Known about the structure:
The protein is mainly alpha-helical. 67% of the residues lie in helices and 2% in strands.
Amino acid sequence: MKLHLTTSDTTRISLLAALICISGYLIIPLPFSPVPATAQSLAVMLTGSLLSPLHTFVTLLLFILLGTIGLPVFAGGASGVGVLMGPTGGYLAGFLLGAVTISLLKGRKPALLRYGIANIVGGIVVVYWLGILRLSQMTGMTLNNAFVVGAVPFLAGDVIKVFLASTIAWKTVPHLIRKH
């Protein structure tokens, strides 16, 4: 399969990858969890809501590659392979899979309810699932304990992010020129 990117596609991918990178600096450290609260999950949800599945994949892969090679784009300015292999690495993998899931589930026509469901499934369920599994594996916590420290503190904020991402996409997509 050949990936053909127009200037418009490249611009959207670059801008959303930059938004994901920058949003990692909007952080609230939680003393009881190794997982910080950031705005990255909102940026990931927006990416899945605004782009095609392939463009979403490219955007998140770009973000992860930038962090892997050492640019400080992960939560709180972290970077490197160690972050991917550490206790929060599952959330980064979840960002990639979750954003693509959002993009696949959102459909082609803007619909607020569909955006909301897509963001809940991809932006919360998929991200938490991979994040909690990795957190449990790396720390030796039970899945229940990993859920308590790696998901529960973030649920309310992520529900708000679902609402924001869904509303922004629903209002924005009709104004974007889409050539898919």
